[in-house]
Amino acid sequence: MTYIIGWKNKNCVFLSGDMAIKRNSKLKLKDTKSIFGEDIINEEDVSVNEECLKVFKINQKVVLAFSGEVKPALDFIEQIKNSISEEAPLDTIEFIVKNYESKIDEFTIFIGLIDKEEKARLFSFKSCTNQLLESEEPIQSGSLNQEHRDLSEIICRDISKNTIISEDDELAIVNTFHQNLLIQEKLLTEAVGGIFFGIKLCPSGVSWQKDTSLIVYDFKEGMVGSDSFNPAELFENSALVNVVERDNAIRYSSPFLKKGYTRNVVYNCLDTPQTLSDFNLKKEMIIDWHQKWYKETNQVFDNKDVNYFGFISRDKGLIPRVAVYSKERLKDLNVKIESTGHGNFVFKSIKKHSIRNIANFINMIRPRLDPDEGQVYDLVFSTQKKRKLNRGALRPLLPFSSLYEQSKEKLLKYLLK
Known about the structure:
Layout: E1 3-8, E2 13-17, E3 20-23, E4 41-42, E5 47-50, E6 55-57, E7 62-68, H1 70-83, H2 89-98, E8 107-114, E9 120-126, E10 133-134, E11 139-142, H3 146-160, H4 167-184, E12 197-202, E13 205-208, E14 212-219, H5 231-234, E15 235-246, E16 249-254, E17 262-266, H6 276-303, E18 308-313, E19 321-326, H7 327-332, E20 335-341, E21 344-349, H8 355-365, E22 378-382, E23 392-394, H9 400-403, H10 408-415
Parallel strand pairs: 14-18, 19-22
Antiparallel strand pairs: 1-2, 1-11, 2-12, 3-5, 4-5, 6-7, 7-8, 8-9, 9-10, 12-13, 14-15, 15-16, 16-17, 18-19, 20-21, 22-23
């Protein structure tokens, strides 16, 4: 299946999702590894391919995401795309939903829109109903189990209430957390995979997640409690996966694919060619995109000139510190990340002979050795340049089994201590 989320803050609505498409057949794939190095699922009776974006920009007032059966969902989205106007988007969507021929629960659509009063609103629609449901709380759909859904809801709700970060920060932080969840819990086995990416819609317009580098790593055996601040001594299996968006398509670089270091473009599921004839219909769009953005995105990848850096530990045995830093904050900390080839990287100090800069930075991303009882995740973000606004954290999160035993009021109070 897939996994998509939607949430709001007081100004904007956000939609994010994965890239995996599940089929009941084997595919002819050139790679045996995923974007993040997991084994691809490609058997005679089932395959999971990191194939296309399930989040769509329709216009400056409407964004969509889908989960479930691909073809009927795309038919529904195309109907909206061909019918909607920016003047009265909600009226058009309500008409399409009301007149949709109800079927079994094949797909779910999340809709973010700006209404006539310039208010951001979040809706959901299931194909088995003729109801458009509005939500003020985070929503989600797809093949995650209830424990992971509870965790996702908490993160979306609490980050959206944080007043020291921008909407761009919020989108990058939430998506990095979910990317960590996909990697650490090996959710590709549940048909959820690829890059977890998203979009925000505000009265001022639509914008995608800013350019991001995702740094994934393992601690070497026995080094979690080490006093060393040398990244080469601490980390192994480290790699950078970079992702940028241009003109409603993303391009990523990954060291895990067959060629050793691959840069691929991923379109949304409507624009992704499925057959040769489909490619011929869309080839002008594909050629135009490459002519316009190929060199620029290569420069971003080569120079690591991205807006955000997300640090993700693969080791499920640790209480990981999922950390998100803006490039401004890394510069403020006098730390930069340099590629050493094939997706590997090193941390370097901008100031010569300043080992302390690296030591301080390693401390920020090092997992806690004394986690609070029942702690599951430690989410740290540092995105503002001014030191008094530069950092926040969500910790600790209760163990999954305890989520059901706590009222929402008590749980939020506990998390926001």
